Amino acid sequence: MTAATGTPVIELRGVSKAFGERQVLRGVDLTVDEHRAIAVIGASGSGKSTLLRCIDLLEEIDDGDVFIDGEVITDPAVAPVGVRRKLGVVFQAFNLFPHLTALENVVLGEMRAHGIGRAEAEERGRALLARFGLAGREDDRPDNLSGGQQQRVAIARAFSGRPRALLLDEVTSALDPELVGEVLAAVRDLKAEGMTMVIATHEMSFAREVADEVAFLHEGRILESGPPEKVLEAPEKQETRRFLSRLLEAGRL
Amino acid sequence: MTEAAVISDRRLEREAAKRRRELRGLAIAAGSTIIVIGGLLALVVTSPGWDTVKETFFSWTEFKDSFPDVLRGFWLDVKIFVVVEVVVLILGLVIALARISRGPALFPLRLLGAFYVDLFRGIPTFLLVYMIGFGVPALALSGVPTDPIVLGGIALGLSSTAYVAEVYRSGIRSIHRGQRDAARAVGLTDAQAMRHVILPQAVRRVAPPLLNDFVGLQKEVALVSILGPQEAVRIAQIHQGANFNYTPLVAAALLYLAVTVPLARVVDRMTEDED
């Protein structure tokens, strides 16, 4: 089932979210069309993770609405479980299930949430692990895998439910520098396949390479968005320039 | 390579020093143990009443006479323990899940769970055995068990379940929230997340404290003797009463140790594995 032409896969309208007194999102508007990747950049604490969590209904928003394929999902009548089954999430800290093997991590959702039989789910799971360079590691528990391997298992897990879109939350931030490349390669691979993605990231060079659009989140608002070459190289806003120059100083650009 | 063949003098020196240190440590440990244990033994053996105590608590003939009976009684303790423990492990989980349930509709469940734990953890097990063992039959209701073994088992179970429920609950709460996020993100319902992701990890984590409660319950089975069943302690008491000699009670104590000490070692082993 494909959406009608012109209907965005994900759309946020005026999304606000506070944790107690702390206002994290202040009316965020964001549109993600099919096959497009949007990189959300911004300082730590700017609300990138919260934004992704709100889309997957892991947080309840206070105001505004989120739409998937044109249908509102932030309505009390909508069951969150059905929405989450349409999306895949990759977390900063991997969040693999430590008591399960790599393969079991990948097939758990397929079998329990999507009702696919074990044989079929495992066949697909093995193929997915192989695709992300993890052939032969199917029976390893997360403990026995490197950070980069764990994150690739997490990507395979998020992808296994054939999601309409993937939400990637700082997927390389917890990795040793030499392991970042292999995880980014996996994301690049998904992008090449036409996966719709929202990527919260600190890796500006990666954002420039993979994203069709970059959105700069600052104090809970999207201050500026557009093609990567524009936002990253000729930003309009003072805040964006300041953020980018700080990254430059830190050697992250 | 010749690496293994060439051992420097410096290294030999260090190894010799290390050996000397170890030997000295061993000697000190042995010496202090002999002094402390020997001293305590000497204190007991030279006490004015030792001869009487030896005769009334550690009589070999009494031990031989009573041991087979006490052992037979102990078999009943073991049976009660096993049955009650299985029920406790299941009921404890049910109550823990009731206490951590969410949503306004389940409020009564949370309330009942909290009430249960407060009540049965707060009453001395000894009193519970009395109240249920003698109180329930006094109601004279038809269909209600009157067998003291069953009633005693129920009393022990009620008390132990309260502790075990709290152990499960702390285990469930100790699982990082990222696990629940990930489970929900792959599309599991809250119940599925609990069943497939949270509980398997939580139960593994609390296995050592659960085993600890095992040992506690195993000892408490002796309280069933209050109600009269011929289990180890009761039989030991009967022997003791007949001959005015406490050795049969020591025999019962040894039987308990024979079970609880190996269990304790298993707990130790599991706790060490965690590190």
Walk me through the structure.
The complex is a heterodimer of chains A (253) and B (275). In chain A, 37% of the residues lie in helices and 24% in strands. In chain A, strands 6-7-8-3-9-10 form a six-stranded mixed beta sheet, with helices on both faces. Chain A has a four-stranded antiparallel beta sheet with strand order 2-1-4-5, covered by helices on one side. The mean pLDDT of chain A is 93. Chain A has helices spanning 48-55, 80-84, 102-113, 118-131, 147-160, 177-192, 204-210, 228-233, 238-249; strands at residues 10-19, 22-32, 37-41, 63-68, 71-72, 87-90, 165-169, 196-200, 213-218, 221-226. In chain A, a hairpin with a 2-residue loop joins strand 1 (10-19) and strand 2 (22-32). Helices cover 81% and strands 0% of the residues of chain B.
Percentage of residues in helical conformation of chain A? 25-40%
* Unreliable spans of chain B: none
Radius of gyration of chain B: 27 Å
Q: What proportion of the residues of chain A form beta strands (DSSP E)? A: 15-25%
Query: Over all CA atoms, what is the radius of gyration of chain A?
Result: 18 Å
Specify the number of helices of chain A: 9
Beta-strand share of residues of chain B: under 5%
Distance between the termini of chain B: 37 Å
Runs of chain A with pLDDT <50, length 5+?
Answer: none
Q: Multimeric state of these chains?
A: heterodimer
Mean pLDDT of chain B: 90
Distance between the termini of chain A: 40 Å
- Count of helical segments of chain B? 10
What gross morphology of chain A would you assign?
globular
**What is the spatial order of strands in the main beta sheet of chain A?**
6-7-8-3-9-10
**Structure classification of chain B:** mainly alpha
Gross geometry of chain B: flat
> Pairing-aware structural class of the strands and helices of chain A?
alpha/beta
Largest sheet of chain A: 6 strands, mixed
Question: Most extensive chain contact?
Answer: A-B, 26 and 17 residues
